[in-house]
Amino acid sequence: MSFTIDNWMVCWQPKANHSGLPAVKVGAWPDKTGWSKDYVFSDGCCFFRRGRQHAEKVARMFIDFHTVVVRDGVAPEAAHREFLKIDAYRESIAPDCGGGG
Questions:
Q1: Closest listed residue to residue 99, CA positions, set 7, 8, 2, 29
Q2: Helix, strand or coil, per DSSP, at residue 49
């Protein structure tokens, strides 16, 4: 599954939360199936980002990644695997970074 810069969201659980859900998941936005409802945090595409330049959206995507990993303690590898679902993420990371290029 692949998402454009305008149709994804990320949901995650902080490291201390043991809910039984995967720590992080990237999926479709808007969430029409309810897959995101049990997560503590979510971010990604939203009305605030609509109308922004592509570079701003990409920068915000990497800020989301940073928040998930650094602030909330999700394993970088797990976040990376999920963010690889986003076209702009794959296109922006180093080609030798497992899925980049």
A1: 2
A2: helix
Share of the chain above pLDDT 70, in %: 95
Task: Count the helix, strand and coil residues of the chain and give each as a percent rounded to the nearest 5.
Answer: 35, 15, 50
29, 42 Cβ separation under 8 angstroms: no
pLDDT at 18 over 90: no
Q: Residue 32 is which amino acid?
A: K
CB 3 within 8 A of CB 28: yes
Give residue 92's Cα distance to chain centre.
Answer: 14
Alpha helices in 1-101 (DSSP H): 54-66, 76-83, 87-92
pLDDT at 47: 63
Convert the pLDDT of each residue in 45-64 to its tens digit: 876 677 889 999 999 999 99
Strand partners, 41: 12
Q: How far apart are CA 13 and CA 58, in angstroms?
A: 22
